[in-house]
Design goal:
The structure holds 2 protein chains of 2 kinds. By secondary structure, chain A is mainly beta. Helices cover 0% and strands 45% of the residues of chain A. In chain A, a hairpin with a 5-residue loop joins β6 and β7. The termini of chain A are far apart. The chains are: A mainly beta, B mainly beta.
């Protein structure tokens, strides 16, 4: 699995877009970028994943640079409920047998 | 929708005691996982089961055993608890297939070993 680097913490004003960066300069061609988040000691929650194209779902958007060495998770209109630790994970797919490795993530605090 | 259910939610043990953490999922998932999370750290994989009847070690398996009782249930056993096993334990599941299926997590079991 490729090593990822995330800032330990970030703040964002409520209603603004939250942009969470992740560096993964050693990513291999078959490795995907996955994002999960963990709200206050609950179990992690899947957000989004992508290979090289930008992805969007009802929760967030994922922007992956053309060289795939970094990515940004975007929460378009952050709410207080988005306060959580966000984990960026890079690994090759093994569908149905995903041995995820969680680092320490980015603690995002949404400010009222 | 129950999803992934873990029992108990909290437990305090004395060093040397044994205990089994229970996990059940109602989503008909093939794969199940056990993670531990120490304070201020990310989750680390203890054991996983890719299908009923199979189990494999993860990153930190020492001191633990698992049983995939059936497709729904995956238990984690501490035979002789040690203070270093004080942690929050999460169970997760997902389905196999040709496309990525995200893992669904339970709410965790908070275990303290005195």
């Amino acid at each position: 699995d490729a090593k990822t680097t995330q800032p330990p913490s970030m703040d964002c004003a409520e209603g603004r877009a939250a942009n969470l960066p992740c560096n993964h300069s050693t990513i291999s061609g078959n490795e995907y970028v996955y994002w999960y988040r963990q709200i206050h000691s609950q179990g992690p929650q899947y957000i989004i994943h992508g290979l090289k194209n930008n992805e969007t779902n009802e929760m967030a958007s994922l922007i992956i640079t053309e060289d795939r060495k970094s990515s940004t998770l975007i929460l378009p209109h952050a709410t207080l409920r988005d306060t959580a630790v966000y984990y960026c994970i890079v690994r090759a797919p093994n569908f149905g047998n995903e041995k995820l490795t969680f680092g320490t993530g980015t603690r995002l605090t949404i400010i009222p | 929708n129950a999803g992934v259910t873990q029992t108990p939610k909290f437990q305090v043990l004395k060093t040397g005691q044994s205990m089994t953490l229970q996990c059940a999922q109602d989503m008909n998932h093939n794969s199940m996982y056990w993670y531990r999370q120490d304070p201020g750290m990310g989750l680390r994989l203890i054991y996983y089961s890719a299908s009923e009847g199979t189990t494999d070690k993860g990153e930190v398996p020492n001191g633990y055993n698992v049983s995939r009782l059936n497709k729904r249930e995956f238990s984690l056993r501490l035979e002789s608890a040690a203070p270093s096993q004080t942690s929050v334990y999460f169970c997760a599941s997902n389905s196999g297939g040709a496309a990525y299926q995200p893992q669904h997590f339970g709410d965790g079991t908070r275990l303290s070993i005195l």
